[in-house]
Structures are given as C-alpha cells and as structure tokens.
Amino acid sequence: MNWDDYDAALFDLDGVLTPTATVHMAAWAEMFNDYLAGRDGQRPYTDEDYYAYVDGKPRYDGVRSFLASRGIELPEGEPSDSPEVETVCGLGNRKNDAFNAVLERDGVEPYPGSVRLLDALAAKGARLAVVSSSQNAPAVLAAAGIAERFPVVVDGAVAAAEGLPGKPAPDTFLKAADRLGVTRERSVVLEDAESGVAAGRAGGFGLVVGVDRGAGADTLTARGADVVVDDLEELLP
C-alpha cells in the first residue's frame, strides 16, 4: 500500500497495537465458564465462541450476543450492577474485574511491529487515533507506554457518553475521523476483529486492513478487509 494516499490511521487496540486480546480472551473464558458451570446442559465456552460472538464488541454487547447463542435470557441490569449479580451488566462487570486484575499484575508490551509502523507514520505526519470498544483503552495505552502517540481515543466510555453504537456499526470510527479532521476516504482502518473489519467496511473508509491474530485471513476478507496481514510491520512505507 502507498501511505501517501491516506492522511490518517485509525487503530483498534487489543490485538492490533497490544497483545491484550489474549488477556481479554482469558478473562471472558474464566467468567463465562464459571457462569455456565452453574447451568445444566451447557457446554463450555471456547475460543470459537470468543471470535464469533464477543471479539471487538462493547462488553455488554458481547455478553448479550454469547448468551443469545446459547438460548440464555438474563435481565439487562444496570452498568452499576455488582459483578455477582446475574444480569448482562453484572456478567460484563465480572469480566472487566478479571481483565483489570491481569493487566495490573502482568502489564502489557505493544507489538514491536506495531511500534515500528507508528514511528514511520509519525515521521510522515499521519494523524493517528485509537478506536476501541473497551472502556479500558486509556489504561492499556498507558501501561503499554504509547498513550502520547494518540491525540484522539474513541473508546467504550466515549461511545457510551455520546450514544454511539458499537462495532460492527461504523460510528466510533467515523467519530475518530471527525475528531482528527480527516475524511473517511483518506483514512485507513486497522482491525483484528470480524466486527471491527465489518465496521470499517460499513463506514466507507479508504482502506480496511485486517490483522490476523487468530480470526483467519479468509474470515477477515469475507467481512470486508481489503488487505490482511499477520503483523503491522508488513505495512511499513
């Protein structure tokens, strides 16, 4: 690709800039399997469930989507619900507690190839933003030591405050482009999740890059990726 054709890069965070997707996967598995163990006739939650129903979505949407796949209905609850409460929000908060415990204990390092691409784009004067469904995005960026690279962060908290639907709707990416002062046609979306790639395609962005960290190149292409790479270093100018 020719980066001169674009003014901005809109990065998902988990699995694109940092390997925190593995932390999220572990936290989701712990939470859902603990919950399913108390229900008769339910098979365990798997990585396939993560990619199909949870990956890239806002936390409560992920809970709702997975439960629906198992025919389980729970009250929606409120975002203030205790993690012990069996509601959509309660289960989402239980997962968030597990994620934060691992992040605090182990920290996180950005992918080296992602840092090299960030350095190259900064040298070219490209405008950079993070677009993440997670409300933990600022904490993850700070832990990874790359927060100062992104003048614009549209995360789950911003989406909730402004009433923006989450991925696969394109609204959070469009908000980031607007805040950077760039057009969608001159912006590149970089995503590892099916829902995020679909959001980039739905938003009509100039280029949608799929980063294959486990979803599969064919799957990301089918959801709308123009290009699929294994590591962002492959996109160096």
UniProtKB/TrEMBL annotation:
Pfam families: Hydrolase. One of its GO terms (molecular function) is sugar-phosphatase activity. Keywords: Hydrolase. Gene3D superfamilies: HAD superfamily/HAD-like, Putative phosphatase, domain 2. Belongs to the HAD-like hydrolase superfamily. CbbY/CbbZ/Gph/YieH family. This is HAD superfamily hydrolase (TIGR01509 family)/beta-phosphoglucomutase family hydrolase. It comes from Marihabitans asiaticum. The lineage of its organism: Bacteria, Bacillati, Actinomycetota, Actinomycetes, Micrococcales.
